[in-house]
Amino acid sequence: MIGWLTEPFSLLFMQKALIASVIVGVACSVLGCYVVLRSMAFLGDALAHAILPGLAVAYLVGANLLGGALVAGLVVAVGISYVTRTGSIREDTAIGIFFAGALALGVVLISTMHTYAVDLTHVLFGNVLGVTTTDLWITGGLAFLVLAAILVLYRQLLVVSFDPILARTLGLPAQALRTGLFLMLAVTIVIALQTVGVALVAAMLVTPPATAYLVTRRLPAMMAVSAAIGILSAVGGLYASYYLNIASGGAIVLVATAVFLIAFLFAPARGVAWRLVRRSSQA
Fold first, then answer.
1. What is the pLDDT of residue 175?
2. Helix, strand, coil in percent for the chain, rounding step 5
3. Going from the N-terminus, what domains does the chain have, and what CATH number goes with each?
C-alpha cells in the first residue's frame, strides 16, 4: 500500500506536477469563494477564454506564453470593469462582448499558425506533467500575490460582496475593489493555465467553492474547506492520471466534481438525501 502511494511521486516530473497542482488548487479554491458568492462564474469562464489572444501573440513573437496570457487577462479584466463603471452597460453584457471579441481575435491569430494544433493543445487542456522549475516559481509567486491580496483586502471584499449599501456608507472604494477582484481572477486563471488549461480552469474556480458552500456557513470556513478540496482534487487527480493513464487536468476536475456530487447528496442540512429523509419523517 505504501509503495502504491509513493510510487508516482518518486519521479521528479510528478513531484513538480504535485507542487503546481496544489498551488493551483489552493489559489483557485480560495478566490473562487468570491466567484461563487458573487455569481461571477460566467466572468471566470470568459476571462479564461479571453487570454487566447495573449497566448497567440506571445507564441508568434516567441515570448513567454504565461506572460502573454497574463497581459491579455489583465487588459480584458480592466476593460470589463471600465465599460460597466458608468452603468450604461450591464456587467453580463460587457462580459459577453469582451469574451466573444477576445475569443474571436484569438481564433484568428491562432489560425495563422500552421502548427497551432500541436503546439497549443496543452493551453486548452493543461500540461501539468510538463511543468518546469521556472514555471513553479512563476506560479508560486503569482499565487502568493493573489492570496496576500485576498488576506489584506479580506474585510473590504467581504463588505462589498455581502452588503453593498454598508460599503457605500463606509465610503469603501467599491469600484476599485471590484476591479481588483477582476484582476486577481485574471491572474489566478493564468496560474491554472499550465495545470488544467483554458477549457477546465472555470471548473476549478467554481466546483471546490460550491462544494464548500454546501457544508459551511461562514466565509473563512468556506475558504478553508474549499482549499482542502482543491488540494484533495489535485492529489487525487494526479494519482488517477498516473495509474489510469488519463489526462491530468481532466482527472483533477473530475475528482473535484465527484466530491461536489457527494456533498450535494449528503451534506448536512443542505444535502438532497437529508432533505428527503426529513420529508419522509414528517409525512
1. 80
2. 85, 0, 15
3. 2-282 (1.10.3470.10)
